[in-house]
Amino acid sequence: MWRSERRFRPIGRDALRRLAAALAVCGAALAATGCAVAPPAPAGSPSETSVREWNGRFSVVVEAVLPGGNQDTIVGRFALAARGAPGARALDLELVSPFGQTVATGRREPDGRAMLTLSDGRTLRAPSLDALLQQALGWPLPIERLPDWLDDRFETVVTRDAEGRVATAEDSGWRIEREPRRWTLRRPHEGTQLRVGLVLDR
């Protein structure tokens, strides 16, 4: 799952330049380093008591729809921290290469404004984190919806497993397929098929 059949690119310099060198998903080296997922909320903040954190591995596969087209794969580790209630939520994020280097860290404010800091110190800003990722990558990633999906909130539930858990769902143009701790997200985009794989450590 973590290798491309045609071209393998660990996330790093080339991928992050396309990100305008950027992206987000928070502190995934912390599984190896023990660092905090995100900076603590300011004292007195109401979000201090409502923090959710996730981390694990990810892959992003961009497949050409036409026969003979190229396939690119980007892999790494991720973590995501969400504070506050849906609709007024702050997100703290980071991408880490398979070799443990932090390549980008980002933050989404409760009003939607987002910024991304790259490993070279540059900072990018946009009205939303998803808009920033679209601008940087050239294709979408559902970062702002991901906390809702991790909490089993979807626009449309398609199927459930024998124990009543969501197995497949659709939301914001994405098809979500879930197994325990393993997710596959798919959607078409401008002549390509995007496939995002997530393996959750927690």
Give an account of the 3D structure.
Strands 1, 2, 3, 4, 5, 6, 7, 8, 9, 10, 11 and 12 form a twelve-stranded mixed sheet that branches. The protein has one domain (8-200): outer membrane lipoprotein receptor (LolB), chain A, CATH 2.50.20. It is built from four helices and twelve strands. 33% of the residues are buried. A hairpin with a 4-residue loop joins β6 (114-118) and β7 (123-126). It is mainly β. Mean pLDDT is 76; it is low at 1-13 and 15-49. The chain starts with 7 loop residues before the first strand and ends with a strand. The radius of gyration is 16 Å and the shape is globular.
Helix content: 10-25%
**CATH fold annotation:** outer membrane lipoprotein receptor (LolB), chain A
Structural class, judged by helices and strands? mainly beta
Arithmetic mean of pLDDT: 76
Number of strands: 12
Structural domains: how many: 1
Amino- and carboxy-terminal Cα gap: 19 Å
- CATH class, named Mainly Beta
Task: Report the sheet with the most strands, covering strand number, pairing sense and barrel closure.
Answer: 12 strands, mixed
What share of the residues does DSSP label as strand, in percent? 35-45%
Q: Which geometry do the CA atoms define? A: globular
Query: Rg from C-alpha positions?
Result: 16 Å
Number of helices: 4
Low-confidence stretches: 1-13, 15-49
Q: Give the helices and strands as they follow along the chain.
A: EHHEEEEEEHHEEEEE
CATH structural architecture: Clam
Task: Record the SSE blueprint.
Blueprint: E1 8-10, H1 13-18, H2 30-33, E2 51-64, E3 71-83, E4 90-96, E5 102-108, E6 114-118, E7 123-126, H3 129-137, H4 146-150, E8 156-160, E9 166-171, E10 174-179, E11 182-189, E12 192-200
